[in-house]
Each structure stands twice: as structure tokens, then as C-alpha cells.
Amino acid sequence: MADYTLDTEIKYLKGVGENRAKILGSELQLTSVFDLIYYFPFRHVDRSKLFRIADIPHTDALIQFKGKITEFKETQLTNRTLLTAIVADDSGTIEIVWFAAHSWVKRSYRTNVEYLFFGKPNVFNRKVSVVHPEIEPIENYYKKHNFTFAPIYRIPDKIKKSSISTKTIQSLVEQAMEIAQGKIVDFYTPQFLAKHTLMPLPEALKNIHFPGNHEMLALAENRLKFDELFLLQLDLMRQFKLRKEKIDGIVMPAVGRFFNTFYHHKLPFTLTGAQKRVVREIFENIKNGEQMNRLLQGDVGSGKTLVALLSSLLAADNGFQSCLMAPTEILAKQHFASITKMLGDMDFRVEILTGSTKKKDRKGLFEDLAAGRVHLIIGTHALIEDPVVFENLGLVVVDEQHRFGVAQRAKLWKKGQQTPHVLVVTATPIPRTLAMTLYGDLDISIIDELPPGRKPIRTVHYYDTKREKLYDFMKEQIALGRQVYIVFPLITESENFDYQNLEEGYERVTANFGRDNVVMVHGKMKPDEKNAAMQRFVNNEAQIMVATTVIEVGVDVPNASIMVIESAERFGLSQLHQLRGRVGRGAEQSYCILLTSYKLSADSRKRMNIITSTNDGFVIAEEDLKIRGYGDIEGTRQSGLPFELKIASIGRDHSVLEYARKVANAMIEDDPMLSKPEHQALRQFIRKRLKDSVHWGMIS
Ligand code: ADP
Ligand code: MG
């Protein structure tokens, strides 16, 4: 062991071997001593505390108790056998349950012998039981332990089969900590640690696994969370600054005839205050040689597309082409239609390119693009394909960015001689503080105001037993000339079960409204069929569209004024809000009707209450984050982060995050390249953590 280092592979540790090493590597990404030290437990069990059986709390906290097994019982259920044991101490009894490994259990533990049990109590049928506890000889309780709080590690079921348990990891981490003795060097200076009251790294790593007490654990957690959030922001800020300094943005100082003609003679309404502000922010950004990388957030219908058009007019005034990428063909077509309509007879040439653009049309289009005869091209993925060459691409607008991968965007950047300005448009509002972290490498603009005169959408919640009443209401509205969306949830596109729901719904609707008046659209349809169905709805040949969430990304049918959401309890708040945004675009009063079953969980009921009580996307986003935690948003963005967060949560660790941002900001101001001697260790550590990740910053 003497010459082992932090880089020693774990197969050399006691109790590992080639086989387990392979599994630990592939399933938990644990290959070295260093990795083990950074494999943090997700909780600890207090081994000093022993519960009397009668006092076992009805919570899901891990607890420890002792007792004798008085009997084993096997119960035959419909599809499996249950093994239970009754464990008794002098205060009472408790049931232990196993779903598997019955013969092994009966061989390993004897009745009337005292054991030590660890597990999570469950309440079922008003009886407390513990499922699959860990069982140890009672001597272990009296033995002196290395640690009072035993770390519990996350072990995927898949590797439990290879008999890798939390105890296996415990023993490996113990060995790793021993090897690491004296080899872990803090990458902060003592002054830095003192100034920010951070626990030194060797102590923090020891205490995160084997804490001396609650306070030490809290300090260790704080230090390691700070590290992650600080390094994350340091990296994003550094990239941000580097880009600003290194990449010469295309200079676009002119406001010329394209912009002015449109603004003064074509724009059919005045811009909202928020739109004006955002256009100004964009112009300030592009006029003096800085490369723009900007996130434009705004609720559905807040007029983001118009801002995108205005930006491309500015680009044209400076002699540059623009492209607008939409996530679907339908959306691309809609943008094309609404933009050409607004432009009227202006000599600003807009073209469209999608997967279904005909070959013979493509050739001419490609030539015109390469010769700079097209000012704005609107399209889908097809724009990324190789034959597309611009004369001078100056602005890229990416709509609904969640649907576009980083790599795809990178490909598009390359199509200009100089890095074009980039505007990412999203209708999923994210609270500002969160956005600043997740998108720390982007500037942010927010449209927080809807165009005037919009009638707020009326949202109501019905139990699905009231469907008859809903149909009556739909009939009234259709008679008035309106159109209706009916949306069904889809968990995964592969689950036939979900389509069955949709098909049943379709049958029910057609039985009431006639086949000719209803179209169905879902993700499994061929693109042609889907487009044809959508088109029938857009043309008002059909008054009802029954769909899965394919419509979520934004068809624009101003005449559609009713959104019915079936099984609304199965949607998240943000999704409900997005769906609702499909209506309320015309002059008529619009409605959103949420149908749920009578049985609702507390969370679902809360979601229904929130969505029926506000139309403000930012409020909904905040509430959504409170209910769900930041998991989903982090998840979507996670792949774009320079490294995975193991212990910190951008949502829950708000105060650490805020603090870390301030500290990171100050450090970047002081030493942007981290080239000062006191920052060398930090720089090295960042490199180590980033070793395997695609680097976000390199792409733009
Ligand atoms: P978003 O892309 O943010 O969902 P759009 O740009 O598609 O919103 O705008 C939604 C609708 O509102 C469009 O029909 C658009 O013409 C209209 N609109 C945009 N800005 C204004 C404004 N300032 N005043 C009135 N209507 C507007
Ligand atoms: Mg839009």
C-alpha cells in the first residue's frame, strides 16, 4: 500500500479483483482511488443510536435496532412468495420482509439469536415493517467502530447482483482514505479557506464519508457543494470572458433601410416595452464587435419571433445573412408564413428549407444562399446539412433550444467565415438566478410583457366524469366558429399503452363530433400524414385536433380557442403552461380545460390549483421548481454543464450558489486566466474534473 497513489486503480484494493473492478468502472464510473474518494454517500446512519422496537419511528429514515428472530413465515401471493420474520425485543415486535433470496436468508440467520438490524421502516396496513434490512452479528454493536455515522452509498440494483453492497463501497472508501492520507492537497490557499469559512479539503473528504458528528458532516457538505458550484461558475465565467475577448464578433453598427422600412411602414402594431428593451439589448451587443451569445426568454405569445425578425433586419442592414432554425417543419412553415406576411412587398428575401424541400428547388436555393441573394433562411435540421453554404452568415436564431443539441449548433456556426451572432429563443421561462447559472455562458434577455389587448385565457379544472358537459361546451364554441385541441399525455413514445389512450379518445370524440371534423396527430405518424392532418386543422377543414404533445412545440392557429388536456395530472406545470399557450392567440376569449380523474395526489391537486390561478409563465416556473426541485431543468441542461454535479443541487443549494457566484466573479475579475501562483492548484484541479467532458465553451 505504501506506494499507492490517488491514481492507483481500484482493482489493486483488497476485495476487488478484475471482475468487480470492471463492474465498478462501467456502472459507477469508479476506476481510481481518487474516484472512490469522490463517490459521496447519499446518507448516513447513526450507529450510536439504537431504537427499541416499540419506539421505531414511522419515517423513512434509516434506523438501527436489535432483536431476536422468533419465527420465519412464508406467504404465497398471486405471483410471488414473501418471506417474513418476526423480530422481538423486550418492548415489542416488528416484521421483516424479503421478496427474494429466501433460502439464503434462512440459511444465514437463525431464530432466537440476537442480531443487529439496519433498515428503513415502512408502514403498510397500519403495521410497521422493514424490507430487506442489513443484518449484522450483535457483537458489531459493542465493537469499537472506526466511525459512528455509517455512510450509505447508492448502489444500482444491477450491481447488487454482483454482491457489491454499500458495505463493499464502505470498505473500499476506507482503504482509499488511508491511501489518500497526506496526499490530498487543498487547491485553496489558507487565506481563502479562512475568508470563506470553508473546511479544508482533506478534512472535508474524510468527513463526508465518515463524519465525526452532525456539525462536521454539515461543514464537509458545505465545503464540497461550494467547490462544485464555485468551479462550475468559475468555468462558465471564464469561458464567457474568453469568448468576449478572443472571438471577434461581426460588427453591425448600422440601423438602415431594412429595419427602418419595416419598423415605420410594415409593423402592424407598436412593440411592447419589453420588446423594445430587448431589441435595444441585442443592438447594443452586436454594434461594436462583440460576438453575441444571447438567450431570449419569454412566455408563449410574447412576441419573440418578431424580435428575431427585427434582429435579422439589422443583420441585413449591415450586409449579413441570417438563419432561423425551428425544431419542426410545421413550425418552420409557420414562421415563414407569418414573417413573409408581415414583410409584405419589402425587398428582403426570405426562403425556407426543410426536409421536404424538393431537390430541384434546393439547387437554386443553395446557389442563392451562397451568392448572398437570400437575406433570411428559415428551416429545420436541413439547414445543418453540408451543401448549405452562406455568403456571409451573420446571425443564427435557434428557436426552442431544448430540442437542439450543442453539436448541431456548433455545426451551424461553422457555416460562417466569422462566428455569427447567436440568439437562442426559448419559451420555457426559467427564474433569473437559475438561468444565470445554467446559462452562465450566455447573456440573457427577457420579454416579460404580453402584447396589449390579449384576453387572459380562462383555465378550469374538471373531473373527467364531466366530459359530457365539456362536449356540450365544445359544440357551442364550434358553432361559433372556433377550433379545439384535445391533448393526451404520452410518457414514452414506445408505450403502446399510451397510444391506446389516444385512440380511445379519438374514437370517443369522433363518435360525438363526426369523423370529418376531427384530425389525429401523434409522434408515430409518418411526417407526410402528420403534416397533412395538421394542415387540415390549420385550414379549418377540421375543427378538432386530437393529439399527443407533438403540438407542444408550437403550431399557431389563432382561431383555436379551446385547449382540452386529458389526464392533466400526468403533465408537469411547465408543460401544462406550454400547452395552454397554444390558445389565446386570437381576438376571442380562450379556454383551457384540464381533465383529471377524481383521485388526485396532493401534488397533482396543487398543480391544478396553480395552473388555474395564474397565466404568468415565470410564476409557474417558480412554483414548478418548488414542487419538482430543479431536477428536470438541471437534467436537460446537465449535458451542457462542464461537469456533473455530484453533491450540490442548483435548486436546493441556493444560498451556496449565490455565495459561490460572488466569489467566482471576484476571482475572474482579479485573475481571468487563473495564472497567478496562488491559483495554480485550483487550475489543475479544474482540469482533472473536466478531463472526460466535452467542453461546452469550446463549441461557441
Ligand atoms: P412567441 O414567438 O413569443 O410565442 P410570436 O412572436 O409568435 O410570439 O407572437 C405571437 C403573436 O403576437 C403573433 O401573432 C404576433 O404577430 C403578435 N405580436 C407580437 N408582438 C406584438 C405586439 N407588440 N403587439 C401586438 N401583437 C404582437
Ligand atoms: Mg414563437
Molecular structure report:
It is a single chain. The chain is an alpha/beta fold. Helices cover 41% and strands 18% of the residues. The chain contains 26 helices and 22 strands. A seven-stranded mixed beta sheet has the order 6-7-4-3-2-5-8. Strands 12-13-11-14-15-10-16 form a seven-stranded parallel beta sheet, with helices on both faces. Strands 17-22-21-18-20-19 form a six-stranded parallel beta sheet, with helices on both faces. α11 (273-286) runs parallel beside α12 (304-317). 37% of the residues are buried. The structure holds adenosine-5'-diphosphate (ADP) and magnesium ion.
Task: Tell me the major beta sheet.
Answer: 7 strands, mixed
CATH architecture descriptor text of the largest domain? 3-Layer(aba) Sandwich
**CATH homology-level superfamily of the largest domain:** P-loop containing nucleotide triphosphate hydrolases
The helix content, as a percent range, equals 40-55%
CATH topology title of the largest domain = Rossmann fold
Number of helices: 26
Alpha carbon gyration radius = 30 Å
What percent of residues are in strands?
A: 15-25%
Low-pLDDT regions = 630-640, 692-700
Average pLDDT over all residues:
84
Bound molecules: adenosine-5'-diphosphate, magnesium ion
- The number of distinct β-strands equals 22
Distance between the termini: 45 Å
Structure class: alpha/beta
Task: Assign the CATH class of the largest domain.
Answer: Alpha Beta
User: Per the principal axes of the C-alpha atoms, what is the gross shape?
Assistant: globular
